[in-house]
């Protein structure tokens, strides 16, 4: 009696040769098929029908030894008319699960017995693979199709994204396209809420297309009334060892916030910024503490905040988090106009508030009303392996606690080895596109329990848009061709020759006018 249902069997693929164990086998392929890495196969065993994936394909010719070095011998062999017919192909199969529990219950059940030598192997049937990789449940969305069997749609479980996701690839590998596809299908398709912290303004430029009618592009703004001291200190760039400056600024901030909370100081004074009022409190604090020699440094740093981040600290921004990060929308926060310090302060501020408000909602019933997925582009900059940032701290908190409160992280980076490993390792899900650098690949493997040596070796050979997808959001790891986003996102190479050809030197009058216009804007 067959151990595999008819729908699980397609064409014969080959036979098991050599020694096997419950996790892996070697297959000698039929000459009539073209084996591909990532192809799914099935075998009948004592335990039942078992599903596996081909992780490596190699070829040889029985007329040649493995160490053939004689050029004349090879040239003489090419004269034989059937020499090409003596080519063979073999590969390595990683056995994933018994098929029945995987199809019927979505449960991975590892085989405990090896597949015997001489067992005939079959290409997995389309119907069986659709049962594994597709779902009619509303929790699942389409990400793409299998690279080896394009007829098979590949879905992911959105509910599992609160266990966090890392999207990793070299530049041009397809990271931005992947984020775009996810955003479109989660926001437009499911009515979900997402935030993209857009370092380079890539998504902001394509906002009307990613989630039509459901996108809000925001300037990087914070109402200083809801700024905490760590964020203020970051914007002021107070050095770690400048304890006296920090003490003055902390006391000034605390006193001003207490006066506003008590009502003895208005929340907003027309024509007088929060920072100007803070400078007044700093003078009082310096006199009170006898720290007058450190006051000029504090005042200079507060002036720097006004000069550099005057547009970021905006008292007209509503203090309600829902007004800035709108539920049911793709909220793109365009950080292209601020430097790394400003980006760190903005990103950490909203990470902190999202986690705090989602916690408060669970405890008191008031807070941010819906779960949210947060995309952090250039994660290696804001969540670095070396050094500390406020974003790194709050991303770490969300990585540990966010699942319970409905806050999911999506980290995007082309330099995985430079991302903090504690945070990266807590991204249960991975979409790994093309990675070439060996240290990046090892770093990814160290942060992912499901990344085998054979899968790791495939990362350099992936084409743009192809990815290895693994984690709890999919039943089993898969090689996937990500769908194309409806709009082009990501970096576009500049046409240097075309740009040079358009250049026309400005006249002296035009240059002077530009300078005067800039001065008028500043002063």
For the record, what CATH class of the largest domain applies? Alpha Beta
Structural class label: alpha/beta
So how many helices? 18
Output mean pLDDT.
Answer: 87
Write down how many β-strands occur, each being a DSSP E stretch of 2 or more residues: 17
What's the number of structural domains? 3
Distance between the termini: 87 Å
Largest sheet: 11 strands, mixed
Describe it for me?
With 523 residues, this protein is of the alpha/beta class. The protein has three domains: 6-132, no CATH class; 153-221 and 317-482, Rossmann fold (3-Layer(aba) Sandwich); 225-312, no CATH class. It is 37% helix and 21% strand. It has 18 helices and 17 strands. It has helices at 71-77, 99-105, 126-133, 175-190, 207-210, 229-236, 243-262, 274-289, 295-309, 321-324, 340-364, 379-382, 390-405, 421-425, 438-446, 453-458, 496-502, 508-522, and strands at 9-17, 24-29, 40-45, 48-61, 87-98, 120-124, 140-146, 153-157, 165-168, 194-198, 215-218, 330-334, 372-376, 407-413, 429-432, 466-470, 478-482. The strands form two sheets. It has an eleven-stranded mixed β-sheet with strand order 8-7-17-16-15-9-14-13-10-12-11. A six-stranded antiparallel barrel has the order 1-2-5-4-3-6. β16 and β17 (478-482) form a beta hairpin. The protein starts with 8 loop residues before the first strand and ends with a helix.
């Amino acid at each position: 009696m067959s151990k595999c249902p008819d729908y699980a069997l397609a064409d014969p693929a080959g036979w098991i040769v050599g020694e096997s164990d419950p996790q892996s086998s070697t297959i000698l392929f039929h000459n009539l098929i073209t084996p591909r890495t990532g192809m799914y196969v099935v075998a009948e065993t004592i335990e039942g029908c078992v599903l596996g994936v081909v992780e490596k394909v190699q070829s040889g010719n029985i007329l040649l030894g493995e160490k053939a070095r004689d050029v004349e011998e090879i040239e003489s062999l090419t004269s034989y008319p059937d020499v090409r017919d003596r080519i063979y192909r073999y590969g390595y199969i990683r056995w994933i699960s018994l098929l029945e529990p995987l199809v019927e219950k979505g449960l991975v059940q590892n085989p405990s017995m090896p597949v015997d030598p001489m067992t005939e192997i079959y290409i997995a049937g389309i119907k069986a693979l659709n049962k594994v990789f597709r779902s009619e449940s509303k929790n699942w969305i389409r990400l793409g199709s299998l690279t080896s069997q394009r007829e098979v749609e590949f879905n992911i479980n959105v509910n599992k994204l609160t266990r966090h996701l890392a999207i990793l690839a070299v530049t041009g590998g397809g990271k931005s396209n992947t984020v775009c596809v996810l955003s479109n299908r989660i926001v437009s398709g499911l009515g979900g809420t997402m935030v993209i912290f857009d370092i380079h303004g890539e998504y902001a430029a394509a906002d009307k297309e990613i989630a039509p009618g459901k996108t809000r592009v925001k300037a990087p703004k914070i109402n200083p009334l809801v700024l905490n001291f760590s964020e203020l200190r970051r914007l002021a760039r107070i050095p770690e060892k400048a304890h006296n400056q920090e003490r003055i600024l902390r006391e000034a901030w605390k006193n001003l916030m207490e006066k506003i909370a008590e009502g003895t100081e208005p929340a907003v004074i027309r024509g007088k910024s929060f920072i100007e009022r803070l400078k007044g409190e700093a003078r009082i604090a310096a006199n009170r503490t006898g720290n007058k020699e450190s006051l000029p440094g504090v005042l200079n740093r507060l002036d720097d905040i006004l000069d550099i981040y005057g547009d970021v600290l905006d008292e007209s921004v509503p203090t309600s988090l829902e007004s800035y990060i709108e539920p049911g929308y793709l909220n793109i926060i365009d950080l292209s106009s601020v430097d790394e310090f400003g980006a760190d302060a903005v990103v950490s501020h909203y990470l902190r508030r999202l986690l705090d408000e989602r916690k408060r909602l669970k405890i008191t019933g008031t807070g941010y009303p819906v779960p949210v997925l947060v995309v952090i582009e250039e994660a290696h900059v804001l969540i670095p392996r070396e050094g500390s940032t406020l974003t790194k701290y709050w991303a770490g908190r969300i990585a540990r606690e966010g699942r319970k409160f409905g806050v999911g992280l999506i980290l995007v980076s082309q330099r995985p080895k430079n991302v903090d490993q504690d945070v990266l390792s807590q991204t249960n899900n991975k979409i790994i596109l093309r990675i070439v650098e060996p240290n990046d690949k090892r770093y990814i493997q160290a942060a992912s329990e499901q990344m085998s040596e054979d899968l790791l070796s495939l990362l350099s050979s992936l084409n743009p848009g192809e990815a290895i997808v693994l984690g709890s959001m999919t039943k089993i790891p898969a090689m996937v061709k990500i769908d194309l986003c409806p709009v082009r996102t990501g970096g576009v190479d500049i046409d240097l020759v075309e740009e040079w050809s358009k250049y026309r030197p400005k006249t002296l009058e035009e240059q002077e006018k530009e300078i005067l216009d800039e001065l008028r804007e500043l002063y």
